Amino acid sequence: MSRCLLVVLAALVPVAVMAAPGEVNQAAIDAVAAGKLRVAKASWWGFDPEDSTRALQAAIDSGARKVIVENLGQPWVVDRITLASNQEIFFERGVEVLAKKGSFRGTNDALFRANQKENLTLRGDGATLRMRRFDYAGPGYEKAEWRHCLSLLSCRNVRVYGLTLAESGGDGIYLGTGQAGVPNKNIHIKDVVCDRNYRQGISVINAENLLIENCLLQLTDGTAPRAGIDFEPNLTNERLVNCVMRNCTTRWNGGCGYAIYIPTLDASSLPVSLRFENCRSLGDRGSAVAIYTGNSPAAAVKGSIVFEDCTFEGSGQPGIVVANKPVNGCRLRFDRCVLRDVAQAMPEHSPIVLQAHDSASEPVGGITFSDCRVREATERRLLSYSDLAGGAGVAELSGRLIVERGAKRTVVRLTEQRLAEWIPAARMKVIPRLGLEGVALQPLAAAKAADYSLAGIRLRQRAHLVLFARQGEMVRLTLSYRQVAHYSGRALPLVITGPSGGEVTRAEVPFQQQSEVTFTAPETGVYQVAVDPGANYLQVDRSSHPLCLSAAERPVRLYSSPVELFFWVPPGTREFGVRVCGEGLSEAVKATLLDPQGKVVGEVDNQLALHQFVATPVSEAGEVWCLRLERPTKILMEDHFVDLRGVPPLLASSRDSILIPAP
């Protein structure tokens, strides 16, 4: 071949590549398809400032080993993009890939999605992937929290470098499951900014060999948890193995900085291994670090969680909160960490808080604080314990804390004596919970149907209602399923079973609507209504028959419900307990226990932790007592709990609608 011909052939490809932006460069496309070019420019497939979805998707699907998304002076406006294996996408500096307005109407629509892909790189120093989070909260969109900027599902060998992922309708980056049992593996996220996302900066559901370094996760706000990063598997067969964060910062997020919510893992799961090195939380409105695990030997995952040389500064709530983590669960260490001016608006709380939720039965502990510094002006206990379980206790806390208040420096060793000062042993009197298994119930008295409603009572999470009807009667329930904050919701399923245990009917209550559920009672007795409104709430507006809340299996969980609740104290009862509490560190309740004559037997206000009223009946005859719930005088009222011990675990909204054991 002559030298002149070689020169001509060599010139053909550059000439083909140099088509004007917006024009399809067919010669270049053909060269990529033929394998002559391994590096492609997305604009070869065209550029449309109104919608470049087809062009960018075609470039990714071309088989090119590297796709360059050029800075053409205008955003690349796209709908959903599906990523490919064995490819690098390079976004030039200043590039903005912008979600197309009016698109992403599906609740799981992501800007970029990779499902079971491998050997994928997204690189873009100074480039931005941006969605339109405020649009998704408006009309025409179903409320959801899964419209992510980047969704990686069961992928391998993925690198994400230098990008800003902003204003998603969910997470900046989501690491989830595309195939059951298959984690994201060998993932490296570096020099990334996750900015103003709706739910999380990053969510880690299922990952092995994950390294996140030099990243900034900031200004998450919208729907809970609103964290900088959240490690939260959904199933026991998912994993958090060899996950490392290094030199990362969470800042100004609506929730906590670093959330580790793993009660969904248990002893059958692979042990967790999470490590945080030289990371910071700055001004996050929740806690800097929040850790929640299962509590029993079977429910608690093994493994280790380590925070090393980390700084937690200016969080709105306590710097470190550890809930339910038992001694026999994963080990937890904080080495040379600094807590600076945390929870300054909450001086009643310590910088470090341990919690036992109502389900806990094992002591909370297995935690080491090695030379951690607490720098603040507030005089308070360094560590405290919030007991919602009624006596689970703490165990195996070790290490030392260095307290710096002004010029004063004090070294505090976590000895048994010191912990006894901070966490006095105060076991709650044990009064057994009575069940309803095999108990026949009947109405206490006749009442008008209007009195049978649970108006004003907002039920959250799993709820169990019982009602009494006679054979052949038509039962009508009017129910409302309402939204809390920005939580999404779908039609709420409801199952009603009869006195013999068989299913009587199923129904659905539309989200943010009122609906009537009816059925004809096939037999006389008690009907059970099972429902779980999740993070939103359900309210019974009307009932044609006597209706009660059941605490037979767990405490009744209410949401912002200042009401009076009535319950039956049977003849012969010697003593009984009524337990109340708020939730977490900033949701409380005011509660007053009243005897049958309306006399105040006990009262608590601004109650966060579990409190038990212990009472004795006024007379030998059966009695109706009342628990009045009110808004606390100083603290927010949202989630709160009520539990009954030593008496039938049924709560009614009026004296006339109480159900009692039949003689």
Structural commentary:
Strand 34 (394-405) and strand 35 (408-413) form a beta hairpin. The protein has 4 domains: 23-191, Pectate Lyase C-like; 256-423; 437-549, Jelly Rolls, CATH 2.60.120.380; 551-655, Jelly Rolls, CATH 2.60.120.380. The chain is 6% helix and 43% strand. It has a 24-stranded mixed beta sheet that branches. The protein is mainly β and 663 residues long. The protein is globular and about 95 Å long. The chain is built from 4 helices and 55 strands. Mean pLDDT is 92; it is low at 1-17.
Tell me the quaternary state: single chain
Portion of residues in helices?
Answer: under 10%
Q: Could you list the spans in which at least 5 consecutive residues all have pLDDT below 50? A: 1-17
User: Which structural category fits the helices and strands?
Assistant: mainly beta
How many distinct beta strands?
55
Work out the helix count.
4
Brief summary:
By secondary structure, the protein is mostly beta strands. It is built from four helices and 55 strands.
Notable traits:
Pectate Lyase C-like, mainly beta, disordered N terminus, globular, 4 helices, 4 domains, 6% helix, 663 residues, eleven-stranded parallel beta sheet, Jelly Rolls, single chain, 24-stranded mixed beta sheet
